[in-house]
Amino acid sequence: MAARPDPSSGAPRAPGARAAGGDPPARAEVISLRPVEAGPLVVSGLSECMLADGTRIPIRGTVHLCRCGGSAQKPFCDGTHNRNGFTGEEPAQPAPSQAGTRRYEGRGFAVHDRRPLCASTGFCTERAPEAFVRGREPWIDPNGVDEQALKQAVELCPSGALAWSAAQEKMGRHPAAQPGLQVLRDGPFCVSGPVQLEHPRPPGDPMRFTLCRCGASANKPYCDGSHRVSGFRDES
């Protein structure tokens, strides 16, 4: 059954699921994301969503996804934001720009890093631990691992904080992606491809960005990595 909003609570009913695997989510014509003030993330135009456990569910119509971190039906909203004091308060600051990028030179290529966009998902440090070391300065050593392995780790970054380029290029490259939304286990919503985000502060990278679902980010609606220190878990 497709996830549809419950008129009485604004929460979708539990959807049916099918096994993970196969091709990436089918492309929808227009995917619209609307963070409701002190409420859920309203999503329309999405044909399929990948959950934290790898299951993919077909979507029809509009779904409401939890942003407060307290729903017992994660990632779906169950109205808990009305009871747990979630405000959705957002900072009065512009989205990070390309000007904040730091470049790390390697042999024949470079890694570009925009720290304000980082969602602390850990893909880079887990996939290429010799190249990405927290607490080291510089924390990125492009020559620490095989070039292909490093590029693959960079391209897994869901927030748009990391990119790579050839040595002569000024701007970083990002992999092409189909529009979609994935729920990261104990972490944010990972958005890819061209989508319509109804928010006055556009994402730092419109082709890939992360949205907070733990309720603790100081940069709502975007993820700032607070799920790692707030104790957020998918299991309620």
Top keywords for this entry?
236 residues, 3-stranded antiparallel beta sheet, disordered N terminus, single chain, Alpha-Beta Plaits, mainly beta
Question: Can you offer a commentary on this structure?
Answer:
There is one protein chain. The protein has 236 residues and is mainly beta. It contains three helices and twelve strands. It has a four-stranded mixed β-sheet with strand order 5-2-1-11, with no helix packed on it. A three-stranded antiparallel β-sheet has the order 6-7-8, covered by helices on one side. A three-stranded antiparallel β-sheet has the order 9-10-12, with no helix packed on it. Strand 6 and strand 7 form a beta hairpin. The longest helix is centred in the middle third of the chain and has 9 residues. The N terminus is likely disordered.
Indicate the topology:
Layout: E1 32-35, E2 41-44, E3 48-50, E4 56-58, E5 62-65, E6 102-105, E7 109-113, H1 123-127, H2 147-155, E8 162-166, E9 180-183, E10 189-192, E11 196-197, E12 208-211, H3 227-230
Parallel strand pairs: 1-11
Antiparallel strand pairs: 1-2, 2-5, 3-4, 6-7, 7-8, 9-10, 10-12
